[in-house]
Specification:
mainly beta; Rieske Iron-sulfur Protein; 126 residues
C-alpha cells in the first residue's frame, strides 16, 4: 500500500515540511543536493519523542536535522545518529551534563520512512 504526500514541487528545497500520515506528523525533506528526491522522517526525536522542528532551536542544514530540544543530530536520509544530546535548546553543555540530559537512553538512530518520487508525486510506501 502507498500514500501520496503531494507533488514534489509542493516541498521547498532544504525545508523540513510537515505532513500528516496516519495521524502522526512526518517531515518531508527535499535536499538541494538531490532536488528530484525526498527523505521522509517522523517529526519525533527518538530521545524523548519531542518534535524535531517545533521547539526552542531546531535546525536543518546540509542533510542533517538537529533536534529543537536536546540538540541531537541526525542524517535525514539514513537516520544515522551523528551526535546524541549534546545540549539543551541550542546551547552546548559539558560532557557530564550530556549523560544527565540523555536520561540513560543510548544513542538511537532516527526512523526513515521509505519514499519515492513517481511522475512528480511523492509516494510513501507503507
Amino acid at each position: 500500500m502507498t500514500t501520496s504526500l503531494g507533488r514534489l514541487d509542493d516541498f521547498p528545497l532544504d525545508t523540513p515540511t510537515p505532513v500528516k500520515v496516519d495521524g502522526r506528523t512526518c517531515l518531508v525533506i527535499r535536499r538541494s543536493e538531490a532536488p528530484d528526491e525526498v527523505c521522509v522522517i517522523p517529526d519525533a526525536c527518538p530521545h524523548a519523542g519531542l518534535s524535531l522542528t517545533k521547539g526552542p532551536r531546531g535546525d536543518y542544514r546540509d542533510g542533517v536535522i538537529t533536534c529543537a530540544w536536546h540538540n541531537s543530530r541526525f542524517n535525514v536520509c539514513t537516520g544515522e545518529n551523528l551526535d546524541w544530546t549534546p545540549g539543551m535548546a541550542g546551547i552546548r553543555v559539558p560532557g557530564w551534563s550530556r549523560r544527565l540530559i540523555a536520561m540513560g537512553k543510548a544513542p538511537t538512530p532516527l526512523g526513515v520512512l521509505e519514499s519515492s518520487v513517481v511522475n512528480g508525486e511523492v509516494i510513501l510506501a507503507e
